[in-house]
């Protein structure tokens, strides 16, 4: 190739590379909190947008809690500060489940225990609610946790919001949540919260959707487990159902 043609070709390659870099930058300007489930992460440009809130919505048994445990495991691996707000089981039960999947959190999760009081058990966590009707108490305990984890990038799981709605005033919970989510996000927190399908009226589900930046649906269809990303802030989503399985290694998306 003559020298001037070679020079033009190199110029063109450099221009294309520069354009690609710009395009990549445009597609993925937001830092992401990965799930560590390759198919999910690639579908949402690398993970949940950092400092956002996502609702995981599906029937009981769909795998929402296991999904949350995986999200925590990935956070622990990355070095994020992980907070697990548990409403339905004791912290030890979650740790045992994570260990069975090979995701030992090694004391790196801060549990906000909103369950032990219900069975009259002593909480293994110093952050424990004594009831769910006093939303102010929940807010204050959360602020204590945030202060203790000062400044770090955080992940928060709330599993399950349905229990909070059941045991507290359902009229007040959405307003409480709006402020709670805003506070958490302002403190560098990526939030994943679960809601049970078939338990709440459609108006309440629409309200919870409105409060969230992302919406992931999970369901059983015949013998298949399916999930889709219906909405995600800063992300192009195709809303296609993806088949997944729960095995002893965790969640496998096909
Ligand atoms: N170790 C495992 N291997 C295979 N499947 C499992 C395992 N542990 C749980 N499951 C499946 O996961 C489902 C429960 O998932 P879970 O996350 O608790 O659901 P949800 O929170 O949506 O109610 C169960 O129905 C069970 O079939
Ligand atoms: Mg669950």
Fold and architecture overview:
It is a single chain. This protein folds into 2 domains: 1-30; 31-253, P-loop containing nucleotide triphosphate hydrolases (Rossmann fold, 3-Layer(aba) Sandwich). Helices cover 39% and strands 25% of the residues. The chain contains 8 helices and 12 strands. A 10-stranded mixed beta sheet has the order 6-5-4-7-8-3-9-10-11-12, sandwiched between helices. It has a two-stranded antiparallel sheet with strand order 1-2. Strand 9 and strand 10 form a beta hairpin. It starts with a helix and ends with a strand. Adenosine-5'-diphosphate (ADP) binds at residues 58, 60-66, 100, 246-248.
- The helical percent reads 25-40%
What would the principal axes of the Cα set say about the shape? globular
- Rg, rounded, reads 21 Å
Largest sheet data? 10 strands, mixed
Reading side by side through the largest sheet, how are the strands ordered?
A: 6-5-4-7-8-3-9-10-11-12
Number of strands: 12
Number of domains: 2
Order of helices and strands: HEHEEHEHEEHEHHEHEEEE
- Distance between termini? 47 Å
